[in-house]
Amino acid sequence: MPNLKDIKRRITSVTNTQQITRAMKLVAAAKLRRAQDAVTAARPYAEKVMEVMESLSMRVDPQAHPMLTRREVKNILILVMSGDKGLCGPFNSNVFKAAVEILDENEDKGISIIVVGKKGVDFFRRRPYAVVDQFLEYGKNLDISLAQKIAEVVATMFMEEKVDQVYMVYNKFKNVVVQEPQTVSLLPTALPSVEEEKRPVDYEYEPSAEVALDGMLKRYMENQIFQALLESAASENGSRMTAMDAATKNAKEMIEGLTLVYNRARQAAITTELIEVVTGADALEG
Which residues form a coiled coil (predicted)? Predict the structure, then answer.
């Protein structure tokens, strides 16, 4: 027969765990709301940057800037955006799986990695790849300054020809339940194409289109990275909210099952005691 004290202790333990998972779900829901608002607020700027890039792409030489230069790929850099914490379902594992696919496809090339998030650092520390830089605890103060720092490191490595191709891997937020891993070629920058019939009125750039292109390319890449950071933050909180909701429901089912076992064991113990009392009384009377 199960020990009643052990079952009671187990029920208490699972109940405490349920309280923690429920609290984590509520915190993730609040953070998710803010992350979704941040993604929405950043879209108008991203769209305007894209419009300017489309305009510039028609007026400059595709080889006019080092960030546009395409060369033989001998060394690649992968920017991996993971989370700082776990307990968020498949959020981190999906990103790592996408990154490993790139690594497997480029085994014959030099590999460098920049990691955003502690979980990514832990993952690649156990593997034979060079982590050239890392950015931790980005979720606490997520703003454009972080994207600018990352973009500066990436652009410098590319323009100094330390790497010939840059990929960015992150989770794109679809909804609370669905987050899709994305692999984006960050450098060399691919200028957006514009259909002939949609070409806008021509403009004159001062001091020149090339100078404007230099500034816009940096902002374009910063915006891509910032959007990916926002998407990743929203995805992490959405995945954690879903995972903690499932954990809370599982804990409830486990508590119900343990309570049933406890009641049955208690009833069996009481029945046994009653039988012993009745048997003893009968023995005394006999």
Answer: none
> Which tens digit of pLDDT belongs to each residue from 175-190?
888 889 999 888 887 7
Secondary structure (3-state) at 50: helix
113's enclosing H/E stretch is strand 110-116
CA angle 7-9-14, nearest 5°?
Answer: 95
* pTM greater than 0.90: no
Q: DSSP label at 64?
A: S
CA separation, residue 261 to residues 154, 243, 250, 256 (Å): 59, 27, 17, 9
Residues 220 and 105 placed together within one structural domain of the fold: yes
Question: Residue 72 sits in which domain range?
Answer: 30-239
Q: State pLDDT tens for residues 188-202.
A: 877 666 555 555 556
Confirm whether 201 is a catalytic residue. Answer: no
Residues 132 and 260 in one domain: no
Active-site residue, from 11, 88, 150, 229: 88
